[in-house]
Amino acid sequence: MLDPMMEQLLPGFVDECKEIAERVTDHLIELEKAHEQSRFDDLARGLHTLKGSAATLGLSELSELAHRMEDAVLPLRGRSAALPGAVTDALLKTLDTWMAHLRATTAKSELPDLRPSHKLLEAVRHAVQAVEPGKAAANNGKAVAEKEKKSSKREREARAARAEPATAEPTAEEEAVPGEEAGSWRVRTREVVSLLHEVERLREVRLRLEERRRELERGLSQLARLGILAQTAEVRALLMGVQRALSADGEEAGDIVASMEDELKAICTLPVRTVLEPLRRSVRDLCKQSGKLARLSIVGGEVSLDRRVLESLRGPLVHLVRNAVDHGLELPDVREARGKHREGIVVVRVEQQGNMLFIEVSDDGNGLDLALIKQSARDLSIVPGAELDAMTPPQLHQLIFRNGFSTRRTVTEISGRGVGMDVVRSQIQALQGHIEVHSTPGQGSRFTLTLPAELGSSPVLVVRCGEHELGVPMSAVETSLLARSGELRVARTRVQLSHREHLITVQDLGTLLGLRQPEVPHDGQPLLVLQSQGRRVALAVDEVIGDRELVIRPLPPEVRDLAAYQGAATLARGELVLIVRPDWLSGFEKRDASLTGTRRALVVDDSLTARALHRTALESAGYSVHTASSGRQALEQLRHSSYDVLVSDIGMDEMDGFELTLEARRSHELEAMPIILVSARDSDADRQRGASCGADGFLSKKDCASGRLIAEVQAVIARRQGVA
Fold it and tell me: Which residues contact 61 (CB under 8 A, 6 or more apart)?
């Protein structure tokens, strides 16, 4: 019998499982016609999610049945033949029984017998294992006509099984609020979402009002500095009245937005604890199975989230917590021998900063075993051996998210199938978020999920670095001050700031982002003291523009993996501002290219996205990359710094790539530097003109997108060295 909290979650769980079952049904029908690996992987993920979520809610019979469905499917992974008809029939029938059992559990009616489904799946599993791949292909060939005959019938039956009756009960999202049946309205989800977007627009209008008020204030200050107070008295009085009115209107608009957000939160959000609390039962059950001792601690369970986001997070959180107990924590005797408490701890911490949500799942176990990860990747042929040997610890950590990867040699009910962590990353990316891994051998692991929330804005300090405006979350800014030579400790390899009897490392923001060469802060230059994850850093910038309330949006998928940026926001006039991640700034370890032997590259493009893509590709190959947004800016950087290769776009307004190449070749210091030109179109005329200007290589942007940039860079450098 389920406890009351679990029963409250069942209606939402039925809706979630209905969607998964529909996808699984479609995959089964299509896989019976022809094999498609990506569709097969999605099928396996769906069954795995059904199993894990059912176990979390204490529905052990359904979890076991989903496990048996996995057992019937996974032996067929990697085969090129279509799914056998017997397997498809058995899984479709079992899936119908599974959903009927779940609905009966929710309605507290008579439960269907699951034993026939278990017998059916067991028979199918044995039949699949007994058939040799060649024989199976032959049998499938003989049965093509029969399957085609049955296919349309099965599709009709599947659609009929999925169809809702006309008298179906309303979904959880459309149900009236309990206790208010007489005075409530039934509202569809899309209508609430539409209202959310309108509130978001209203918030942006309020932010623009505040920016207009600041502009007016600056205008009044300039009038006062002109000194012609008598002549401008009437105008200034009028403008001051407008300024006061704008300020009052802005405050009222802010109150309206805040009130509407609060009301919408009450309608469409739930506390995170409704998803997290059932995990305590899951941890207990896992410990009983594995002989481990563990305790789940939840911090921030009162944070409210959009119901849709919450349901989408259920699966990833189940996987991460189960993974922490199964893979992370040691057995009690082992922990005791290592000086730890016999009982391990798994902590789920939830924090919302403005419109950004951070969820951290950590444990105090053994940490990720890099040697085991590397060996498993080698055994499974996930990464070529040479590439695997060159991987850094953070890159090895990312292998656990690869489809089919597992460090377990045997498959259990909990792990070993290689789909759990793959599901986590896929679902977080579907929410426009990303996941990071931090692990310390012998001390534990930490998985951090970062994703946008629908409501709210974030306080951001906008700064200028060169010609770029960037944002730093205010939550990480401890203080700001002006650099003074007497407070700086300048050594050969680093600069430190003496601040409140502590020495803090000073980093130049432009240098960290690859925008310019490192420089010692001059007297009066603004410094920001940041604190994140227990680390502090003093950040040198060129100007502090001011604090703003901004809505931070995720970066486009093409550049979402850039570690330096949390997202992007738009200022009142439409300017795009990239938001830098404080933990990346505070954890950055300065590397001197002259000491490490790292090759240096300069990327020139007036497109921010193109610069980011080229930089990511080059950094992945071990290059230290600086960027410039115009040809003239690139020439300025080339006067002060040396580079092993220059990659430049052709089509730039101020100075195009051809002109930049000609200017570089006129300089004695730059005449031997390899230059690669990049064009949006693959034109023979552009290639010939680039070669005549002195370029060593030419690529189209399509070539760069397909991964040819690194090979071309290495080739032109090798050719230049051969000539030398």
Answer: 101, 114
pLDDT (average), residues 521-531: 91
Residues linked to residue 344 through DSSP beta bridges, in sequence order:
294
HSE (CB half, 13 Å, CA atoms) of 623?
A: 25
Percent composition of the chain: helix, strand, coil (DSSP 3-state, to 5) = 50, 20, 30
List CB contacts of 381: < 8 A, sequence separation 6 or more: none
**Where are the strands (E) in 300-366, listed by range?**
304-306, 344-353, 356-363
How far is C-alpha 368 from the chain's CA centre? Answer: 20
Q: Tokens 């002989």 map to which residue?
A: 291
Q: State whether the Cα torsion 545-547-548-553 is positive or negative.
A: positive
Calpha distance 283→269 (Å, rounded)? 26
Side chain identity at residue 385, one-letter code: G
8 A C-beta contact, residue 442 and residue 338: yes
Q: To the nearest whole number, what is the mean pLDDT of the chain?
A: 80
Which amino acid is present at 676? I
User: 90 forms bridges with which residues in the sheet?
Assistant: none
Nearest to 485 by CA among 528, 529, 522: 522
> Is it the case that residue 40 has pLDDT exceeding 90?
no
* Cβ-contact 466, 542 below 8 angstroms: yes
Residue type present at position 650: I
Cα separation of 45 and 56, whole Å?
16
What DSSP line would sit under 424-438, residue for residue?
HHHHHHHTT-EEEEE
- Comparing C-alpha atoms, which of 563, 375, 559, 547 is closest to residue 472? 547
- Residue 325: name the closest of 424, 448, 444 by CA: 444
Q: Where are the beta strands (DSSP E) in 495-534?
A: 495-499, 502-508, 526-532
Read off the tokens for 92: 């479709």
Q: What is 124-169 written as a DSSP string?
A: HHHHHHHS-HHHHHHHHHHTHHHHHHHHHHHHHHHHHHHSPPTTPP
177 pLDDT higher than 90: no
What are 638's two structure tokens? 């080339």
Q: Helix (H, G, I), strand (E, B), or coil: what is residue 706?
A: coil
Residue 698 phi/psi, 5-degree rounding, is -145, 130
Which DSSP helix (H) or strand (E) runs through 451? strand 444-452
Per-residue model confidence (pLDDT) at position 131: 55
Taking the whole predicted model, whether its pTM rises above 0.85 is answered as no
Q: pLDDT tens digits for 323-380?
A: 899 889 999 999 999 999 999 999 999 988 777 889 999 999 999 988 888 888 888 8
Q: What angle do CA 200, 203, 206 make, to 5 degrees?
A: 155
For residues 212 and 217, what is the distance between their CA atoms, to the nearest angstrom? 9
End-to-end CA distance of the chain: 80
Per-residue model confidence (pLDDT) at position 160:
43
Q: Are 33 and 151 in contact (CB under 8 A)?
A: yes
**Average pLDDT of 422-430?**
84
Contact between 516 and 602 under an 8 Å Cβ cutoff? The reply is no
Sheet holding 356-363, edge to edge: 294-299, 344-353, 356-363, 444-452, 434-440
Average pLDDT score over residue span 689-713? 88
Task: Please name the residues in contact with 314: beta carbons below 8 A apart, sequence gap of 6 or more.
Answer: 16, 53, 56, 275
Long-range contacts from 669-673, C-beta under 8 angstroms, 24+ separation = 669/642, 670/638, 672/720, 672/724, 673/643, 673/644, 673/645, 673/646, 673/720
> In 10 A of CB 389, how many CB atoms?
10
